[in-house]
Design brief:
By secondary structure, this protein is α/β, with parallel strands linked by helices. The protein has 2 domains: 167 residues, Rossmann fold, CATH 3.40.50.720; 94 residues, ProC C-terminal domain-like fold (Orthogonal Bundle). Helix content is 44%, strand content 14%. It has an 8-stranded mixed sheet, with helices on both faces. Strand 4, helix 2 and strand 5 form a beta-alpha-beta unit. The longest helix has 21 residues. It is elongated. The two termini are 35 Å apart. The structure holds NADPH dihydro-nicotinamide-adenine-dinucleotide phosphate and (2S)-3,4-dihydro-2H-pyrrole-2-carboxylic acid.
Length: 273
């Protein structure tokens, strides 16, 4: 995997998102020898990470350990306490790849001193190689370090690099949190089916398979989503009735989604601290 080319990978925080990325990397050939993890929780699944060094705290890392990439995957609220332990790695041979919501490049520069920093926003479908990440580098990131980060991120899905860091708060709202909205759609669809008289387990099966199938279709198709929607909507048929509700100017899905994304974008800005 290209991400290993700079030297060992250090993953700081292996929870839901760090763990999803690790699953994706390992499925694509990241070997145990190339990765170390610092993660305080004793998750039993770490026992299955053949050859990966998992440390409960940074003092478990060997004195001569020199990571090429440090992936910062702890909560934004933990970052102040975590960063001082990794400041010693700041230098031309190490790039810090943050996935934390809200935390800005300026924040990391202040905490780490002169350091190569990539701020990124992935999402949990990375676990199955279908993630979406947007990344922005600071001026100290070398072309090789950018390539290494791109390799790590591209190994678990699609990657877009941007120059304008100001976009990342809205990215966080749309694609970072996006899987949660889609899973909520499954929950709502299943519950609505149950209320329409379907057995709960059948309704959930319909909702899951329909969302998964629609995702696969949009991925495989070059048609716009609106065309795929119209393909389902027979004139004067059943879908048209549902869409009249969902696409109402007031109380429909668009104004609701716009409000939701604005709220998440605002929260991302607040998390900058
Ligand atoms: N979840 C998601 O879908 C996404 C999350 N993110 C970002 O990813 C980051 C992690 O989020 P998420 O995975 O959801 O959160 P989690 O709480 O699941 O993961 C964070 C992990 O870091 C561990 N941790 C706490 N303190 C330390 C420490 N000092 N050193 C090393 N590890 C530590 C936590 O252990 P313990 O639980 O024992 O405290 C936990 O396992 C956040 O910054 C978030 O903004 C970005 C995109 C999507
Ligand atoms: O909810 C959060 O703050 C994180 C960032 C995007 C997805 N999860």
């Amino acid at each position: 995997m290209a991400g290993n080319s700079m030297g060992p990978l250090l993953l700081v925080g292996c929870g839901k998102m760090g763990g999803a990325m690790l699953d994706g990397w390992r499925a694509r050939g990241l070997t145990g020898a190339g990765v170390a993890i610092v993660e305080p929780s004793a998750d039993p699944r770490f026992a299955a990470l053949d050859g990966v060094a998992v440390h409960a705290a940074p003092d478990g890392l060997a004195a001569d350990f020199r990571p090429g990439v440090v992936v910062l995957a702890v909560k934004p609220q933990s970052m102040d306490a975590v960063l001082p332990h990794y400041r010693r790695f700041a230098g031309p041979d190490t790039v810090f790849l943050s996935i934390a919501a809200g935390k800005t490049i300026a924040y990391f520069e202040q905490a780490l001193g002169p350091a190569a920093i990539v701020r990124s926003m992935p999402n949990t479908p990375a676990a199955v190689g279908q993630g979406m990440t947007v990344a922005v580098p600071n001026g100290a990131v070398s072309p090789a370090q950018r390539q290494a980060c791109d390799g790590l991120l591209a190994a678990v899905g699609d990657v877009a690099w941007v120059e304008d860091e100001g976009l990342i708060d809205a990215v966080t709202a749309v694609s970072g949190g996006g899987p949660a909205y889609v899973f909520l759609l499954i929950e709502c669809l299943a519950e609505a089916g149950r209320e329409a008289g379907l057995p709960a387990d059948l309704s959930m099966r319909l909702a899951r398979t329909t969302v998964a199938g629609s995702g696969a279709l949009v991925q495989a198709s070059t048609d716009p989503a609106a065309t795929l929607r119209r393909n389902v909507t027979s004139p004067n048929g059943t879908t048209q009735e549902a869409l009249a509700v969902l696409m109402a100017e007031e109380g429909g899905l668009q104004p609701l989604m716009t409000r939701a994304i604005a709220a998440a974008t605002r929260r991302s800005r607040e998390l900058a601290g």
